[in-house]
Amino acid sequence: AVTAPDSARVGRGTRAVGTPNSQLDIDAALGISWGGAQRCDAADPNCSTDGGTAAPPPVFAPPDVSGKKIAGVAQLKITIAGRDEGVLRVGLFDDAPVAAAVFADLAAGFYKAEADATPAAWTYGAQWCIDDPFVTLSQSADAQELAYRRRTGARKTPSDFKPSRPNRDITDAVAPAPVPPGTLTVRRAGPGQDLEFGLTFAADAGRDRYAVGALLDDASMTLLARLGALPVVAKRAALGGKAGQPLVKVVVVESAWAAA
């Protein structure tokens, strides 16, 4: 298992970027339609992207995996705005061994794209984005560097640090098929250099992505629904490519992998 040190964890919730002054309305770029003092706290489970409150998101049953062989189980312990929200338990499919192995190695904390690369891990390195119907997690080279320093407590990046970025497509020959809520998916070309995976919080036709695994219990599905309903940076915002990212910190504070 890989765990972030206590000193590296986010200690408190944060509101959306803006101002508490109700006389100003500078949150429009984020999709917040009124001043900071009147909008809801982005860390509130009922807060929506427009700054108001929303109904609780639907929670679906876990996908039926009775016809699938499970290669093992990855676990990601999640905090939202510094609060412990539970664990995502992901069963990885035996019939998608290439992409599943990447996800498993990231959960275990020793994914290496090349022999001389620095191991990458989901712990403190996962970057989250909500792109209906997917909650995606990925890890760019910059995120890997920052995560490595926070996991190890290093103040500077060592000179021999080398991010793990695949220099070729790593994918499986899986036929297109609809994917139900709770499915772990990856793009047809594989995770790519940013190691991107997506969990479906609603059904998807599966034309552009294929199934790599599935959430295994009700608690995981409840947490996925919570992630999918987080307020995000609006797509019209010009904030350095941050559209779709949650307005509060979502952190994997611990991850693990156990083969079946």
Percent strand: 15-25%
Low-confidence stretches: 4-35
| End-to-end gap | 16 Å
- Fraction in helix: 10-25%
Provide mean pLDDT, rounded.
83
What is the alpha-carbon Rg in Å? 18 Å
Categorize the overall geometry.
globular
Count of alpha/pi helices: 3
Class per helix and strand makeup: alpha+beta
Query: Which sequence of SSEs, written as H and E, runs from N to C?
Result: EEEHEEHEEEHE
User: Which strand order does the major sheet show?
Assistant: 1-9-2-3-8-6-7-5-4
Q: Which features characterize this protein?
A:
260 residues, alpha+beta, 13% helix
Describe this structure in words.
It is built from three helices and nine strands. The longest helix is centred in the middle third of the chain and has 12 residues, at 97-108. A hairpin with a 2-residue loop joins strand 4 (127-131) and strand 5 (134-138). Residues 4-35 have low confidence and may be disordered. It is an alpha+beta fold and 260 residues long. The chain has helices spanning 97-108, 141-152, 218-228; strands at residues 2-3, 70-80, 83-93, 127-131, 134-138, 183-187, 197-200, 209-215, 250-259. It has a nine-stranded antiparallel sheet. The two termini are 16 Å apart.
